[in-house]
Write a structure and sequence with these properties.
five-stranded antiparallel beta sheet; alpha+beta; disordered N terminus; 245 residues; 9 helices; 16% strand; 2 domains; Beta-Lactamase
Length: 245
Amino acid sequence: MELVLPTARRVPAWDRAADMAEDGLRRRLAELSAWEGAWSAAWLCAVCPQITGVSGAGIMLMSGDVPRGSVGTSDEVSGLIEELQYTLGEGPCVDAYQQDRVVAEPDLADPVTRRWVAFTPPVLRALFGFPLRIGTVRLGALNLYRDRPGPLSGQQHADALALASMAARWVLEAQAAASSGAVPSQLETDADFRFVVHNAAGMISVQQAISVTDALIRLRAYAFSHDRLLSEVAQDVVDRKLRLE
């Protein structure tokens, strides 16, 4: 994988945040270039907390307005965050992707704006979502969490933007190297694309003569109303232990 450093440029004072992000990207690319052969979703997620000083990280891919699954998490808490976002269809990664901007909630116990009705993971005190994008191409989002409240510093914010940009480049290059319609092996290794959910949605679509999108909505509604994870409900549908009416 060839790493191409962005060309330095001058920016006006009002764009210092973008300048810091660009400088951070160049610095982190330089630091991590020696580890290029070891890059994977799990490795990138493990590096994110070390660099940004947060408690954990996860990378979620999305398509359209639908979460497609997690390609990597740094720990069990990050895994739960990704699972809840996938089940509920809301959270920092979903907002960061859909709104194409950084989403920060520095104090979940006392939020300025209550963004998410159902998404209330235990233990967490702060959440941050950074969109994965290359130009106008949006791929998903990087999720960072912290077990204490407080905003990211300017440098932490710039480092997170740099890491999100690196993750986006890695995902795009991995997909470009794969055959048409195939999931790249680099992404599949540490990923959880919840194929069982897609299988269940397909079954419900046929059973009830509705679209797959509507079937997924019904799956999510059932999981939420019964306080269960979406993947668990989907597995019951596929195993024919549950039939949604």
